[in-house]
Design a protein that fits this description.
The complex is a heterotetramer, with two copies of chain A (217 residues) and two copies of chain B (233 residues). In chain A, 17% of the residues lie in helices and 26% in strands. With 217 residues, chain A is of the alpha/beta class. Chain A has one domain (4-210): Glutaconate Coenzyme A-transferase (3-Layer(aba) Sandwich), CATH 3.40.1080.10. Chain A is globular. Chain A starts with a helix and ends with a strand. In chain B, the strands form two sheets. In chain B, strands 1, 2, 3, 4, 8, 9, 10 and 11 form an eight-stranded mixed beta sheet that branches. Chain B has a three-stranded antiparallel beta sheet with strand order 5-7-6, covered by helices on one side. In chain B, a hairpin with a 5-residue loop joins strand 8 and strand 9. Classes of the chains: A alpha/beta (217), B alpha/beta (233). At the A-B interface, helix 3 and helix 4 of A face helix 4, helix 5 and helix 6 of B. Chains A, C: Keywords: Transferase. Chains A, C: This is Succinyl-CoA--3-ketoacid-CoA transferase.
């Protein structure tokens, strides 16, 4: 079974040379730590920066240079700042190659819910709805089940949607899955996790073809 | 050169009254019009509809207006980190319209650029598109979203001149340029008002034509919401 | 009767302190020469400059600094350069206060035709259609009649339109007129021009109320 | 940093074939992609649909492609000053679609920003809106205009870096930034390719994400169309 860093590590393998990547808050943020050194990737943050670097050294924080999580950041050579409209032009115009974000629920048709739980305080969707409605390549990073042990991979989302039919791939603590028209296609098992465990933790239809290999991370 | 310079924040906010719709630049606490917000608190205007990506924190940014219950409605994309906000929203005192961040930016830009409405894919098939017109183009679904109509836009820039030209710094730019000229009156506050002719015409982010009033803010706290650092090796 | 410079001089009186002004090619360009010195006005050119100054001194021309007529220009302190989309945001968003342009025909309902003569080579509308469809304050600068002596102030335009119901005021070599719902309202006569002459040169309905004063220029 | 630098104009234009739709930055002869145009002449591709505000003059700019009859259709706002253009248009060899200048800019921007279409007031009630969808918003009429679909965008900037970041100069900026990212492949040529990290991230007009290939042009003639001067006193 993977921990959060493990999920991030596995997703990092999906990041290809020359990709512009938008990382959501939470596990997705960790992905940046595990991207191979021999490929070139640029991170975009929707508040208006392309070419983000690591967090600043203590004492070098700049209130005017933050990411979408409101964290202080640095920029790398070749970085640029821009306004929110141009930032979402990058996203909506599909110039960003890969979006990685968390989710509360994913349905087997690719629907995603990650912004609202009825009856609870709703903080808002931020840029998530623009990202999922626009991106051609969306990977969801999440735990396979919620805190109560209920599956987050469902036949249908029960929570209010963030976007429809948009998720392509899901990486959880248990597995890597792909959205197909016959249900979640099981691509890989997490180290030490059996297909049986994945079946038990998945409420949606699971498509298993041949032997399911253990992921290499 | 048409002079946009006003003496101070008092003069800059003349004409702001109860029940107006106001835009506020900023992302989180970065690039917010600190001086305009402080003056709105002093003016004690209320019933405001605020268009702003976020709602500040309890003791800073728009949170200051929330504390005094000056805000009737928030139009935002993300409103966490604010207790007063949560209480007023749950009690029904505060009306909240949550919209996607890119939609927020583009509805400002539409107002600035004279477009009545835009078609965006964001929010299609979700609560956000309920009751809204939708339409297919090339096999993809879009939601019709209207340009904002606001009375005042309060923006904050790094440098500006008396002609109203603005330059922003880093990610403090965010929604600020998109809100300039998107309201009847745009009030720009700057960290530094520089002499006319100092700014390179090539590097101006927002030409003065989009700004009605400009002043240099007395002080900028520029609070950091999530100070995140790595240790020095 | 006014010459082209006289028309420009009269129109310059319409330019108010604090106006952003877009000047078309031809007579409108001349208006800049006659704006009072004691008011502040900024000239916008739709190819992407605000705060235009006079033509450059010989030897100081810059191929990268031109106006919409493709003429080399200079800029004044406080000027700015911008892209075409932002330039038309200024125009469409009604941030430009006054548009002055030429016309082949103006109709008494405010329609304007100035871009196309069927059967002849058509050069295009450039930015004129955006300007007339957007501006709240449009003044047409033109000769009262064409080269054949036919009136250019008509009941209805005969040429393909540039915009509908948009012209507010017309300054010709003979008169200043305003578009009203009862026809062209005659506001002023050019020096030495009689009301009779204006009536004879105007095909559209002419509204004459009381004494028509001679313009002061 | 993702490297967009290509060796030369030959490499930059790889993949351009007959009958493609190409965008060209520039206003008159100012800010046109001189090197890309020269290479298109050499490549002898034809049947091109060109989206460009103007069509050059007889012996410069897109006029060079017109001379060789490489252009099938022009989409422009103003096409004067070109005899070859006039002859080919009148003889029916050249198809011409004239559209308002602001519409041209915004149809590029729509393609860049992922908007399928826009509502503009320009051209309403004229030939330009014939056969097009129109709609009223707040008592004013608008025309629905679609985002362009282009194969290549050729733009010219003043300075750029290997990441594809661009800075334009003066009014040579014009349509160039709006065309970046508005086609499948955007080719930027620059007067000066500067080392990475030299450009101030705050002053970049177009971030490299909108550019697929960048190279430094061999030579820039930068011809002036209407040299207008005043005498020195």
């Amino acid at each position: 079974m993977l921990d959060k860093n493990g999920i991030a590590k596995r997703i990092a393998q999906e990041v290809q040379d020359g990709f512009y990547v938008n990382l959501g808050i939470g596990i997705p943020t960790l992905v940046a730590n595990y991207v191979r050194n021999d490929i070139e990737v640029e991170f975009q943050s929707e508040n208006g920066v392309l070419g983000m670097g690591p967090f600043p050294f203590e004492g070098e924080e700049d209130a005017d240079v933050i990411n979408a999580g409101k964290q202080t950041i640095t920029t790398l050579p070749g970085a640029s700042f821009f306004d929110s409209a141009l930032s979402f032009s990058m996203i909506r115009g599909q110039h960003v190659d890969l979006t990685i974000l968390g989710a509360m629920e994913v349905a087997q048709n690719g629907d995603i819910a990650n912004w609202k739980i009825p009856g609870r305080m709703v903080k808002g969707m931020g840029g998530a709805m623009d990202l999922v409605a626009s991106a051609e390549n969306i990977i969801v990073a999440m735990m396979h089940t919620n805190k109560r042990g209920d599956s987050k991979l469902l036949k249908q989302c029960s929570l209010p949607l963030t976007g429809v039919g948009c998720v392509k791939k899901i990486v959880t603590n248990l597995a890597v899955l792909e959205v197909s028209n016959k249900g979640f296609k099981l691509l890989e098992r997490a180290p030490g996790v059996s297909v049986e465990e994945i079946i038990n933790a998945t409420e949606g239809d699971l498509l298993i073809e041949g032997e399911v290999l253990e992921m290499k991370i | 050169m048409i002079n946009k310079k006003v003496k101070n924040v008092q003069e800059a906010l003349q004409g702001v009254t109860n029940d107006m719709t106001c835009m506020f630049g900023g992302f989180g606490l970065s690039g917010i019009p600190e001086n305009a917000i402080a003056q709105l608190v002093k003016l004690d205007v209320n019933g405001l509809t605020c268009i702003s990506n976020n709602a500040g924190i309890d003791d800073f940014g728009l949170g200051l207006l929330l504390q005094k219950k000056q805000i009737k409605k928030m139009v935002s994309s993300y409103v966490g980190e604010n207790d007063a906000f949560e209480r007023q929203m749950l009690s029904g005192e505060l009306d909240v319209e949550l919209i996607p961040q890119g939609t927020l930016a583009e509805r400002c830009r539409a107002a600035q650029a004279g477009f009545p409405a835009i078609y965006t894919p964001a929010g299609y098939g979700t609560e956000v598109s309920e009751g809204k017109e939708t339409r297919e183009f090339d096999g993809k679904m879009y939601v019709l979203e209207y340009a904002f109509k606001a009375d005042f836009a309060f923006v904050k820039a790094w440098k500006g001149d008396a002609a109203g030209n603005l330059i922003f710094k880093g990610t403090a730019r965010n929604f600020n340029p998109n809100m300039c000229g998107a309201a009847k009156i745009t009030v720009a506050e700057v960290e530094e008002l520089v002499p006319l002719g100092t700014l390179d015409p090539n590097n101006i982010h927002i030409p003065g034509i989009f700004v009605q009033r400009i002043f240099q803010g007395d002080v900028y706290e520029k609070r950091i919401e999530q100070r995140t650092v790595r240790p020095k090796l």
